[in-house]
Amino acid sequence: MATARLDIRLDEEIKAKAEKASALLGLKSLTEYVVRLMDEDATQVISEHEGITVEANVFDQFMIACDEAKAPNNALIEAATFTKSGEFK
């Protein structure tokens, strides 16, 4: 059960469009519509900022470079230490 509140003010025209969209989707309320939109958008934004997507050929080149690497250089060792220190999330 939701317990947090969000109080917003918006233009009447925007509210009317949102209410219509909510009704067209068969949702129970404007609140349900807004919560759904916020959840979907927040999930997408977080995913875009916390993930990396690369082309298959770039990933293949990366994997080949990893396989051919003899030993990690100082920059890589420092980066690994930095991530383990908890300063990087």
TrEMBL record:
Chain segments annotated as transmembrane: none
Pfam families, alphabetized: TacA1
Keyword flag Nucleotide-binding: no
GO biological process: regulation of DNA-templated transcription
Keyword Cytoplasm: no
InterPro entries from the UniProt entry: Ribbon_hlx_hlx, TacA_1-like
Keywords: Toxin-antitoxin system
Similarity annotation: Belongs to the TacA antitoxin family.
Protein name as catalogued: DUF1778 domain-containing protein
